[in-house]
Structure formats: C-alpha cells, structure tokens
Amino acid sequence: MALLEVTQIRYVHATIRLDETTATQVDQYAAFLHAPADDVVDKALAYVFAKDREFQEFLQSPEASKFSPSLRVRKPTNNSAEGTVKKPANSSASGRNPAASATGVTA
After folding, report:
1. pTM attached to this predicted model
2. How far is Cα 99 from Cα 61, in angstroms, rounded to an integer?
3. 13: β partners
4. Which one is predicted more confidently, 14 or 75?
5. Strand, coil or helix: 73
6. Hey, which bits of the chain come out as E strands?
7. Where are the alpha helices (DSSP H) in the chain?
8. What confidence tens digit (pLDDT) does each residue in 49-105 have?
9. Residue 2 burial by CB count (10 A; 0-12/13-18/19+): exposed, middle or buried?
10. N or C: which end of the chain has fewer CB within 10 A?
11. Inter-axis angle of helices 20-33 and 37-51, to 10 degrees?
12. What letter would DSSP give residue 83?
C-alpha cells in the first residue's frame, strides 16, 4: 500500500460578487494563513456546508437534485489547468502557489 495518497482535484473557474468588506476580510485571512484567497473561499464554504445540519439533511432529499444553477462557471478550455493536482500553498518561497491562485473562485 502506498504511503501517500494523491487525489486529483478538478477546479472550475467561477465569478462571484462579494460585499467589499467581505472581500477585504478574505484577502486579510488569506494573508494571515499565507494562502491564496481562492483557497480561503473554497475551504470556508466547505466548512459551512459540512457543519450545517439542515443543509446536510437537504442534500439527502430528492429536492437537492432539483435546483437551477446560479453560479457563473466558465467552461474549461483545452489548454486550461483543470484537473491538476494542487500543491500546498506554502510550497514556494513566497508562500503562494501561482498555479493554484489562478484556479478556483474569483473574489
């Protein structure tokens, strides 16, 4: 059995609108963590989704599959970095991973 497990992560490019104060705090939290802002938004949303018990119940219902997508997701191009494995945010000298910060949610 392998000692390391490498998972492929498929990223999408999405455009969102944030309150100016929220956007500033996302950048500040990213600086605090020495991580890309995209990662802060992604991990914060994943945390909220996992902790919200009502949402978890909703996901188990037939209603969950009946939704109209409202997130503006760009279609990947043939040359895009979609599906690449993401390296830790602190893997470079600056503490930022340029490939990782170019993917994900745009704040």
Report:
1. 0.64
2. 37
3. 74
4. 14
5. strand
6. 13-15, 72-74, 105-106
7. 20-33, 37-51, 53-60, 98-101
8. 999 999 999 999 999 999 999 999 998 776 555 444 454 444 443 444 433 333 444
9. exposed
10. N
11. 100
12. T
